Amino acid sequence: MSYYQHHVFFCTNQREGDAKCCNNFGAQELRDYAKQRIKSLKLSGQRKIRINNAGCLDRCDEGPVIVIYPEETWYTYIDKDDIDEIIDEHLIKGNIVERLKI
């Protein structure tokens, strides 16, 4: 059995200059929001859900992006509503959010 039921990696990479990157779309802020929401729902910790920062996940053109393991499901998102939908549907109910999947 995996240490975590779900391990969520948010690309929070910041590139120099005008290069496209996830952090230009508020990735760090939304990662912090997701982590706090998971904690408030008492879903964080061993055998539960872990939210992590990641460096570049090499999908900048599709960003901002997250990847959820062990399913290896990739999502893009725009705002807190999208993050809430990913948490509620994928992490809690086990349903893939097709409209955000990449």
TrEMBL record:
InterPro entries: Thioredoxin-like_sf (IPR036249). SUPFAM superfamilies: Thioredoxin-like. Pfam families: 2Fe-2S_thioredx. CDD domains: TRX_Fd_family. This is (2Fe-2S) ferredoxin.
